[in-house]
Amino acid sequence: MKSIRKEILLKNPETLVQCISEYKKISSELEPLPVNIKIASVCSFTLRGFDTAISFYCAKESLKSDVYSAPYNSYSQEILNPESGLYAFSPDIVFLWLDTHSLAGDSYFNPLKKSADEWRAWAEETAENLLTLISRLENGSKAAIVVHSLEKPVFSPIGILEKKQKYGIFTAVDYINERLTSFAYENAGVFVFDTDSFYMKYGRENLFSPKWYYLGDMKISPDSILKISSEYMAYILPRAAKNKKCIVLDLDNTLWGGIIGEDGISGIKLGPSPDGRCFSEFQQMLLALFKRGIILAVNSKNNPEDALNAIKNHPYMILREKHFAAMRINWNNKASNLAEIASELNIGTDSLVFFDDDPANRQLVRELMPEVEVPEMPSDPAYYPSMLQNMVHFNTLNLTEEDYKKGEMYYTEKQRKSLQNTSFSQDDFVRSLDLKLTVASNSPMDLPRVSQLTLKTNQFNMTSFRYTEDDIKKIISEGGTAYSVRAQDKFGDYGIIGAAIVRDSTDTRRIDTFLLSCRIIGRSVEDALFVALVSDAVQKGIHKISAEFIPSAKNAPAKDFYSKMNGRRTETESGILWEWVYEKAPVFPDILTVIRENQND
Predict the structure, then answer these.
(1) DSSP 233-285
(2) This prediction's pTM
């Protein structure tokens, strides 16, 4: 879809009218495509134009969306009534925006109507009501819930003394927001959108129009709908498993100023000087993303000796060789290099973001690899940090221990590949790794990572079902089992790299989800996980196993796995159904060690 009307999708409309016009040009081409994500908006005021704006921004990211906007100011009825249009729509994500003015009424502009005790009581009651609504929505739907924090008023009749009074509207709003934040911390499927930060980023006066407020109770102007829709993509992309995993970087005039082959290591711009600080701060931000799990790689037309000399030896270079999981420093086509990088890292090319200061290289990659995200780099490198700061592609709905260790894991993977190249066979290679697996079931500590794997794993994923942590908890409460697989070898800890979800009936265990990280495919981990699922079923007196392979655009690497297990194959409308009958439990592969934890009785 990324190639549809690229001249439209590459630019950002400045007004809602422009957005509507441009979306109409591509809507007919989007219509035959399947819906990727269902988005609902529930507000206490008018958010006219949201449907088109959010659909346009989704289209820019190769997503077709279906959008539901709840009727004006009917948030209580929509959430509390299980028969409402909101629940009938069955959204994947809900944006809940209740503004302070709507909740406080006339006291918003005249806060002295309430005493300190009355404001305290209002804050406690409002917080309880909000949390009740969120809980009801969470329990009644499968959606991720993004709730806006309450914005602080800009007017106080006592002016500079507002912060000196015992308890007023400002303090009340702080209390409610603290309750929202605490609730989100305890509930994995709930997220808080920082409304005050949104106003600070764009400027309240730029977002709010008194004219539109009095005409139609619009708390942000029609054109500002574009800005809030753009910000919402930070939540939509990971919910649709469309967030990016890897940043691929050019070097000259991207990671440093100047051309290393001409200016030399002492002549490039990098460090505390006025023309070098922007590159240093850009690298600091990239390092921060690396530390939270984003993969970094290099794709540069350069002499390798010159470029590596700068990376290894420049005193102000922040990103060093150890931070890059792959490097292509040569004179080859940059699109070909990107394909090689994705192959080496065993990720899809649609997981890549490519930064290059050269417009010709950017256009080449867009033409040949439309699935790669290629941002427009500012002509002035002083704006590089701001550009990266405004990108929403690297967000995730949770962060796990594995994310923070990902950079180290890719480094150790290079060592494993070196060993593999000297091994006589794949089995010899796995034996030499001294690979140990820990298979746990229904481990509360592992559920965030299991959810994350269902949301982001595409290649070795039998069904591509996407589950939030709360979804998995519900499956467990209904008698299902969520398995996690942790791997470790002589080079280091892989973390949790596999997961499965099963649902048992009286006589059948159905494998709902079966997936592995692409980093460990082919090392008999998939065989060991399957044996664990079957063994547990047999131990419970269940001898029939069923599983489905549902093909997607990306899971071809998983297609033949179930066929190796010699089951009965049946074609279905959605894919292939496999069935097995086991009188006794199969044995684990002997080339690795399997440890069981939290095993079901």
Answers:
(1) HHHHHHHTT----EEEE--BTTTBBS-HHHH-TTTSB-SSSTTTHHHHHHHHH
(2) 0.81
